[in-house]
Amino acid sequence: MRVYLVRHASHSLLGRVLCGRAIDVGLNAEGWREAGALADYLAHQRVGALQSSPRRRALETAQMIAARIPCDIQIAPAFDEHDAGEWAGREFAALAHDKRWQLWNEHRGSARPPRGESMCELQRRVVGHIEGLCGLDIESAVIVSHAEPIRAAVMHYRQIALDGFHHVDVQPANITLLEITGGGVDVSTLEIMEPA
Q1: 189: Cβ–Cβ under 8 A, 6 or more apart, which residues?
Q2: Which pTM does this prediction carry?
Q3: Does the first or last residue of the chain, that is N or C, have fewer Cβ atoms within 10 Å of its Cβ?
Q4: CATH number at residue 60
């Protein structure tokens, strides 16, 4: 089975604000262009299921894909954005001065956002969902999500410790392919975006 983990396309707050679950931002013009390129690529794959995080930025990306493939969008709560707790909606520049934020970025395996979700909890929910997909009678599935859930899945299948999260880069409109066989899971990044 092939699982395409798609990070949502770009929006106007990208890189400046930790939107999390607090700010339901939609795609900007660049994001719509990226989503179109994703749809063009995935239209040529044999997709049996299309799932999305409930966040607007993910849903808008999934809607572009759904216009090109014969699948309805299913909401996948397990691939919702990471629950960043009190940090959601804050600017990264302000968070940089928070010692708890520094600890989180040094020790993802043991730290936790205030009133938020640990990386272990996030990883359990996304991996459990992927394993559940393997019971479906389909060749491939597309899941549109966010950087942290995709990163958590990649780290699990590549056996990277949670503290090594910075070794896994998940850019906007990025596709990570999981090829699941009886012998294990191969992980690769697909380069589909042309330079702007």
Answers
A1: 174, 175, 176, 177
A2: 0.95
A3: C
A4: 3.40.50.1240
